[in-house]
Design goal:
Elements (H helix, E strand, L loop, with lengths): L8 H21 L8 H14 L4 H20 L7 H4 L17 H9 L6 H16 L3 H5 L6 E2 L4 E6 L4 E6 L2 H13 L22 H14 L9 H14 L4 H8 L4 H5 L22
Antiparallel strand pairs: 1-2, 2-3
């Protein structure tokens, strides 16, 4: 996946997670890989559909990732031939559901809850402000480094692993102050150039999984324990706020780093009346 297809590390991890999920299911059934039949693959996909936890898009992606694995396995003789060709991913419409974020009021309440003097509070406040103000992806926040902050020109450079580009955003006063507070008062020195690190040993740069846990735990502390509570929910919240402020789809797409306009168009389903041009970006209430 890395050498031949050029996929990002995050995407490779998603493919590996799908394979691991399938392996655990096989182990529970006592079926070795070389004995897997088409009905075994159909059964695991059907089981996830019956559980009702995964959306049709998630099940579709899971099936696609299993197909990639079985193409690889067949080429190496690990399983019977023809399985990959028989995997049919469930169909779905790209815009059949509206992205679900948390309410703007809850996002501001979340920020207000992270005002402690502990180092972990200062770190988490800076992280949450980046998600809520800029709608960054987890991989983008995890990839931030000290030299991405241009204090003199008041900009922040963000590498976008999904489109494979680097974006430059103006560094707002509130977000900059939160990051600076973390660097000066909470971040250990001499541990590397990554911006954010874990708070417990072994100390290492945060990854997508760590960021997801930070968001979920912080939301749980203010009583939000249901619905979508990961980092991407805050991205949708940021996008919806821009739409409510009257930003055009083009501006929102550029702000979120979308290459495909259809990735942004789905937000229009929420409030078509809000699609009017405005001159400035309104991020009030983040302090």
């Amino acid at each position: 996946m890395r050498q031949e297809r050029g996929l990002s590390t995050a995407t490779i991890q998603d493919y590996c997670a799908a394979a691991n999920h399938f392996f655990f299911w096989l182990a529970g059934k006592g079926v070795p890989l070389n004995a897997v039949q088409m009905n075994d693959i159909d059964d695991v996909i059907a089981a996830e559909h019956r559980r009702g936890v995964w959306s049709r898009r998630t099940i579709h992606d899971y099936a696609q990732r299993l197909r990639a694995f079985f193409l690889f396995a067949e080429a190496r003789g690990w399983c019977r031939a023809g399985l990959a060709a028989g995997i049919m991913a469930p169909r779905f419409m790209a815009d059949e559901t509206v992205p679900k974020g948390i309410k703007r009021a809850d996002a501001l309440r979340l920020l207000a809850s992270v005002r402690g003097d502990r180092p972990v509070d200062k770190r988490d406040r800076a992280i949450l402000m980046l998600f809520i103000a800029y709608g960054l992806r987890a991989g983008e926040v995890a990839g931030l480094r000290l030299n991405d902050l241009d204090w003199e020109n008041e900009v922040i450079r963000v590498r976008c692993p999904k489109p494979g580009r680097t974006h430059v955003w103006p560094l707002s006063l509130d977000v900059g102050d939160a990051i600076l507070c973390y660097i000066r008062e909470a971040r250990s020195s001499g541990i590397g150039r990554s911006l954010f690190f874990t708070s417990h040993a072994p100390i290492r740069p945060v990854d997508r999984k760590t960021l997801g846990k930070i968001v979920r735990d912080r939301l749980a502390r203010i009583g939000i324990v249901t619905g979508r509570r990961g980092t991407h929910a805050l991205r949708h919240t940021a996008a919806q706020h821009l739409l409510d402020q009257g930003m055009s789809m083009k501006v929102i797409g550029d702000f979120l780093g979308h290459r495909n306009p259809s990735s942004t168009a789905i937000y229009a389903k929420v409030n078509l009346a809000a699609l009017r041009e405005v001159a400035t970006l309104d991020l009030e209430g983040l302090a």
